[in-house]
Amino acid sequence: METDSKRDLELEGKAVRRLSEVILSLPDEAARRFLAAYDEAYAQAVFEAVYLRETLPAKISGSTARRDELIEVTPAFERWERRTRACVLDTSPHADVSTSLDELQKGDASFAELAKARRDATLAQGKAERGPRRSGKKSKPRGGAAKRPEAKAA
Fold it and tell me: Which spans does this entry mark as compositional bias, Basic and acidic residues (predicted)?
């Protein structure tokens, strides 16, 4: 399955791709979340990458200049990229209550706040799926023989 960022080069017999091209098609906030997940995946040795002299666009990298990177394109990287891209572009109700381990460890996200938001989102979704609740009281009969005065007299 090809991604929007498919523009591989070849170096030393290996397919490689620039990080800047991988995040190019992502909206700014999604690109920042992607980069946080990218750093976490690199630290866990999901893929290999090297720094380049060029920097990423400032609107994506934030206040600090961040170097562009050259990533070795492997099946593991492509799987990771597809999953991560789907997560950062997710517009479902739970998208706002997800984070990366790296964001939690850096203090960029609060575990307690996210846990509460997740619980609230889950409860709201459950209520929406069940529909409006009934009070449990029996409803009054609508029309019929019991309401007519001649039915009581008989």
Answer: 120-132
